[in-house]
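Handout, section 4.2: multi-component inputs.
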Amino acid sequence: MEKERKTSHKMFFAWNYDKEEAMLNEKSKNGWSLVKGGCFHSVFEKDDSKRYCYRIDFNMNLLNNSEEKKRYIEMNEDLGWEFINVTFNGWIYLRKEYREDVSNENYDIYTDTESFNAMMDRWIHFSYGLILLEAVLFVVYTYLLIQSKEWLYAIDLAVFVMAGFFIYQGMLKMKEKKK
Amino acid sequence: MKQEPLTESYYYILLCLFEEPSHGYGIMQKTLSLSNNRVKIGSGTMYGAVSNMMKKGWIEETKSANPEDDRKRLYELTKDGREVLIGEVKRLQELVASAKLVMEESR
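Output:
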């Protein structure tokens, strides 16, 4: 029998990945298990017989490196985690069957401060790149604006400033999560 | 170059591979039993540590010699990894020896 499916477009930014994790676990309590995760497109399937514990990981090394991805999946399966999918920008969705007699800390995928902080740093470094990109675009478009006197470029400039600032505050939030 | 102290996860992974190659599950189980269930290595920590130590050349991937073993990947200690582990054990012994000197004197 086909299982009932639903799609969610609820959006989570990188620095709220832990809130997304909590949402996935909450949904699984009600029988909705994730079959494909994403930043603004997730698919759930109704199955009341199973309850899962979900974890989200971030690692861009898996992108464009199929051997590394295989090794990652194998290591996780070896330790009891089912790999669901990885998004185009390196967010990884994992799950394990939930058991009430197992304490929460047994579901930690990062079991020491160093490796947890390393995950935060992977995203923080990535965000530096994004902020730099916004800065470069800002300079280029300022030049275009001065050259052409076309005032519509001012709208682009405003967008770059806002995007840059938005990512910057996200980066600060991510830094606060570090232990 | 002076070797930095290892984290507990790195230390136990190297130690678990000292006698023979192993896979993720084997390393996790052995670490639990060696440490009386104190040190748990989660999948993210294990993957990160193993990747990092492969880059440093302390461990490498190998295949099982036993064709009946369906597990594809095993991890094996290299000569460098062995030296790092032995060096770390020496450092830890030195730390304990220092503590003994101070504490037993003050008794």
